[in-house]
Amino acid sequence: MKTFTCQICGYIAFDQAPVDCPVCNSAIENFDNNPDAIETPADADNLSETEGTHIPQILVRRECGFNHGEECREIQVSVGEIEHVMESEHFINFIDFYINRQYMTRIILTPKNNHPVCTLHTKLSKGTLSVIANCNVHGNWRSKIRLDEMLTQEKQ
């Protein structure tokens, strides 16, 4: 799988670069093919301290606390098994959401004022959800889940 990174805002596109960046509207010329755009743990069962504080943790709830008049899934994301720091010199810039490798939205965080957590409400109940957290020091870290599998587990 190819990964392309927008050199303006850090958005990551899968398979091919978009004509215009969906985050900052930058032209395709500002995208680089970057196979190392996403960090991965050396051993998923034995995470280092750096890996443990960067991999997004995803929790999906079948129903949210709001009454939207239709089904709503609440996706909660926390960066790290141990919460990532949010200091001026080391912090999570943003958290991007993708469904089936297609961009959905970005949550921008600021150091000192925020925890590295967010919640997204969606109508979706199927597909592969990917969450990418961007650390200003250690780069991009991704977690993926199958929505239908998570929702089935919650029912049991």
- The share of residues in extended strands comes to 35-45%
Work out the number of β strands: 11
CATH domain class of the largest domain: Mainly Beta
Strand order of the largest sheet: 4-11-10-7-8
Give helix and strand order, one letter per element, not per position.
EEEEHEEEEEEEH
Q: CATH homologous superfamily of the largest domain - what is it?
A: SOR catalytic domain
- Mean pLDDT across all amino acids: 90
Uncertain spans, ≥5 residues at pLDDT below 50? none
Amount of helix: under 10%
Structural class by helix and strand composition: mainly beta
Q: Give Rg in angstroms.
A: 16 Å
Provide the fold topology.
Layout: E1 3-6, E2 12-14, E3 31-33, E4 38-39, H1 49-52, E5 56-61, E6 73-79, E7 92-99, E8 102-108, E9 117-122, E10 128-135, E11 139-146, H2 147-155
Q: How would you describe what is shown here?
A:
The chain folds into 2 domains: 1-36, Rubrerythrin, domain 2 (Single Sheet), CATH 2.20.28; 39-155, Sandwich (Immunoglobulin-like), CATH 2.60.40.730. It contains 2 helices and 11 strands; from the N terminus they run ββββαβββββββα. The protein has helices at 49-52, 147-155; strands at 3-6, 12-14, 31-33, 38-39, 56-61, 73-79, 92-99, 102-108, 117-122, 128-135, 139-146. The strands form 3 sheets. A 5-stranded mixed sheet has the order 4-11-10-7-8. A 3-stranded antiparallel sheet has the order 2-1-3, with no helix packed on it. Strands 5-6-9 form a 3-stranded antiparallel sheet.
